[in-house]
Amino acid sequence: MRATPAPAVTHRPDERFDEFLLAAAATLPDQPAVVEYADGAQRVTTFRRLREAAERYAAELDRFGLRIGDRVMVVSDTSAESVALVLACSSRGLPFVPVSPETPAERRETIERLAEPALCLSADGAPGAAVGHGRFGGGRIEVPRPPVRRKRLRRAVTPTDTAYIIFTSGTTGRPKGVVMSHRSVVAFYRGMLAEEFVSVGDRVASTSPLQFDFSLLDIGMALGGGAAVAPVPRALLRWPTRFLKVLRVTRATHVNGVPSIWRQSLRHIPGELADLPDLRGVLFCGEEFPLGELRHLQRLRPGIRLINCYGATESMAASFAEVPDPLPDDVTHLSIGAGHQGTDILLLDAEGAPVGREGVVGEMYLRSPALMTGYWGDAEATDAVLVTDPLEPRSGQRVLRTGDLAYRDAAGTLRFCGRRDSQVQIRGNRVEPAEVQRRLLAHPDVGEAAVVVYEGPDGDAELSAFVVLSDDAAGTAESDLRAFCLRSMPAYMAPGVVRIVDSLPVNQHGKTDHRRLRDRLLTDAA
Questions:
Q1: How far is the C-alpha of 439 from the C-alpha of 481, rounded, in Å?
Q2: CA distance 379 to 23
Q3: Residue 510: CA count within 13 A, CB half-sphere
Q4: Can you tell me the distance from the alpha carbon of 234 to that of 240, in angstroms, rounded to the nearest whole number?
């Protein structure tokens, strides 16, 4: 007898973030929604249980008398509990601010100071003594010193309200808060689901921390389509045998993450990777997938669907491109596609004129309903990237100036060419070298500093810093300066090497000559 196909997930117009992600609970209540790896086994939370957990957390939030728009900082890895909590926040119009437990204390304090959350809730540890600080788990929220209840000013949550704020690296020396509305996030989810990456019953292994937008992409791709999200524990991700065990135990059908998560498995245990029973699709983002490794993966997993994802936190993502199978020998750069459904990407040259010819490089401008509202508390930075429509400035429409360069190939798809500014990708994470430089200059013994990007031994982008100490500095070691960086920023942002030098080279314009510094790194490595 042929099995009855699972009913489709039905979405209605103008859903909130939480409504979109829990829509499957109406038709697929007993399907897995979150599959967690725990002590060598899987722990499954169904859509019904996830909805019930979200409702319990929503009732808990109601006890604090918060206003629509009050922020809730969530310090947690991705789990069934944290997903339920952010869904509860969304249902009450409380933007959530996700922060990784691995975030250094100083940076976490900076984010808290900028976001001014009414509640700061952690999954682990003591509830905290400060006002509004607490912990969550088991459907309960414990806050020893709750915030003062305030009179409610709003009647209802609308799709244009803020769903979440994600803080990323910024050029000003402080994190930038990307504000996304319910409508923008759901518009992106709808465009992504039109690509038909997953279907009911699939399981999407998520390798990004909750504080990164691609974890929310994974959650939306899975739950929005009636599939399950399977968070990979952060501590196991860098161990190839353990990583593959998580995929095997959770029966992951798809994996999303930066290309480097596959490197050790491809090099050391390719047989185990080839033998995974359920893996059918890999999505990658944040950095280029070395073509040799990509071809190796295709040979190990014939027929696997490989998707190159392109985009930024300001739109979650903008385009998806399927990698040809097999990848032709003459390919040197992968396509990033032409924009997902509902978007349009325009190329402009240095003079602001549209680029129409094949092979001509231009800057990408994104037209989409899935754009951020702006940067939290930073109108100047917002106006620099959400710009007036260059084709019809009288319309008042805003488009996203991405800062990314690309050209169109013969098929009309885009090929990424790098950044207009200095922003770089380090292990899939966006980093502003200027922010790292400002941190070094904040050290009392540092007089000058320069941060350069170079290619490490594995072919990945790495950061290195050159520092000139002030005249009265004494006893400061290079390791001390790196530790100083790690106190306020995650490891991927801190320079892997810090070198103390007598002076920084300058070019003919009197500016620091980063090329000569990079050449020095290569010479020393040789």
A1: 10
A2: 35
A3: 0
A4: 12
**Closest-CA residue to 259 (of 303, 211, 296):** 296
Answer whether 364's CB lies under 8 Å from 402's CB.
yes
Specify the CATH class of 340-419 in words: mainly beta
Q: What are phi and psi of 307, to 5 degrees?
A: -120, 120
Residue range 233-251, pLDDT digits in tens: 999 998 999 999 999 999 9
Q: At 47, which helix (H) or strand (E)? A: helix 47-62
191-200, 280-289, 440-449, 504-513: least confident range: 504-513
CATH hierarchy code of domain 432-525: 3.30.300.30
Angle of helix 433-441 versus helix 478-486 axis, rounded to 10: 120
398, two tokens = 């805003």
Segment 82-128, tens digit of pLDDT:
999 999 999 999 999 999 999 999 999 999 999 999 999 999 877 88
Domain boundaries, the chain: 340-419, 432-525
Can you list the positions of beta strands (E) in 234-334?
Answer: 254-257, 281-284, 305-310, 319-322
Residue count of the chain, please give it: 526
